[in-house]
Amino acid sequence: MSSKNHKIYLDYAATTPVDKEVLQVMAPYFSDMFGNASSVHYFGQEAINAVDQAREKIAKLLNCQFDKIIFTGSATEANNLAIQGITKKLASPVGDRNLMKTMHFITSVIEHESVHEPLKELEKLGHEVTYLPVNKDGFIKVFDLEKAIKNNTVLVSIIYASNEIGTIQPIKEIGRLIEKSNIKRRGADLPKIYFHTDAVQAFNYLECRPDWLKVDLLTFSGHKIYGPKGVGALFVRKSTPIKPVILGGGQEFNLRSGTENVPYIVGLAKAVELVFKNREKHFKHVENLRNKLLNYIIKYSKDVKINGAISNRLPSNLNIRFPSIDNETLLVALDQSGVAVSAGSACSSRATNVSHVLRAIGLSDKQAKESIRITFGKYATEKEVKMAAEIINKTILRLKNFSPKADQPTAEKRHK
Questions:
Q1: In which element (H, E) is residue 22 found?
Q2: Which of 32, 286, 331, 384 could be joined to 28 by an S-S link, Cβ 3.0–4.6 Å?
């Protein structure tokens, strides 16, 4: 393939290609070993054995108990299970009374939609939610979280690393705070506070063992770590009160009903294994590529702005703003030139709303619409980064000197 026709993928935060080793271990379970894991015969036993081995592998890597890994259909489902599952359990009747009638939740303003949306639904039911602000660099203050705790606080859910600006929250410090708070609450006969983190973007590059982080619930996803789409998982610490949100045959230790997706579960386990094996190497690789691209761009675009802190940030993430350049126009122009980047979260890219994360760090709507997200992965190369930089710089220069004409490459025209 010539460099002219080469497509450069720099949107690894949206999804990753399935690793060949992952694909290899998945393949037999689509046809040769196709049994239903709930069946009692040989074919079913073969399938459930594969699920058990996958669960055991992940549990060992995360240093947790086998039955504390719950497989789901996505990270979105896992986040919903964590939030709604705790709420349902604590609201369940105990004798002739409810354990908790009005519950209080704490989260941040920059969470993924799969955390914000279920919390908004709980607000409609009369529960309370505190949304912690972030500073201009994208970080919450642990002190703000401590002040926000109430007598009826039951769950804190803070994203480990932002899917949009890559900033890494002090999860371990928060875990220690909640641990100390719970010791005091026991003496005051107050409900325990449980701690959940969405570690989907962090899982590739950061320490995610639940005991080290001091979390009770942790979400991760297959397709962000070179595994298949359509599978995720939730770590649930022992004694965490949780009820299923999907009812049926009682699979996944009665927490997530539905026929087990055996090939995808096997693929997820292999992907997790490869993450733990290669994390340090891939961290350095993507950080090097990110820094090189940023330097290339800054050299030619002096007015470029970085959204979020450059330190305490995922090594793969670069969210930047080109003043006076509309990001939709830029994305289309880059795509036509063979470079794939995004405006932000893939889960909301089809919506016309301005990024709530960029608003939260103080950007105006106009500034948010001048921002793009570039994310790197293990298959990205230095050659691609250099090519991408040349294309980006030429495209920015062209758009700056471009007066709107009938042939302007707008998103509207592209979709007609």
A1: helix 20-26
A2: 32
